[in-house]
Amino acid sequence: MQKNNCPTISIIIPCYNGELYLKEALLSLLNQSYYNWEAIIADNCSTDSSKEIILDFQEKDSRFHYIYVEKKGASAARNHAVKYATCDLLLFLDADDWLAENTVAEAVTYMTSHPTCKMFNLRSLWVNKQDNTVRNGFVYLDYKHCLVYGQDPKCVIRKSQFMDIGGFDEDMKKGFEDWEFFIRLLDEHSEVKVSENILYYYRVNKGENSVFETALANMEDVMKYIFKKNYDKYVSILGAPQLIYQYQERKLPQITKAILDYRQKFINMVSRLVHLHL
Fold first, then answer.
1. Is the pLDDT of residue 211 over 60?
2. In whole angstroms, how far apart are CA 173 and each of 49, 74, 100, 106?
3. Residue 237: left if φ>0, alpha if ψ -120 to 50, beta else—which one?
């Protein structure tokens, strides 16, 4: 265990009404084999006892930091918390998930010894404590896979690069903002390391009104937004828009055609304006 007064990694935790599971998340930090971390918990206008739980941990351990943010969603909470981070390494943890004891040690060791690595992907387990089932979570394969299937924020990245791209898109309030963020952060040349061990535990039974359930219900609208915003990256990497989404339930032809029609109308409008000035 390393122990001094200088944290080397900032753990970012957005929290909204997380009293049921928040203690487990924060205790997993206290149980880390690596000492030099700081945790910045962004309270997103919670109406339950989340604030009291965080302040209790903060009183007992100065590595915990409570900040209050306006209720503008998880993206805004993460972005605001990152501003308070004193370290260049960032680890994102949801308030209802938890970390393995060696998570911080493995992430810090790898990222500090590989300065060109852009992301340390935490291999995860999805845990349903209601029926005691588990399954493997997603891991990063390559950039094309990220474009098509998304990428979870279960990772360690660098604050400098986070700030360079403007953080998470705060206009995305229907979910999958992490997917869009990693499309901008990474490219086909990015160096990414996936952990050998399970380092992150994702709680599946989060309730019918969870962010994940909301995201699934709005998937088509979210994908249209992501595609339009990152159109050039999709086309340059995948070669043709119709290859972007690979499975039927995502209604690929309809989405692709609608976006291409929208883009063509925009191009036609610009062309007309240019001719008017000639």
1. no
2. 24, 8, 29, 32
3. alpha
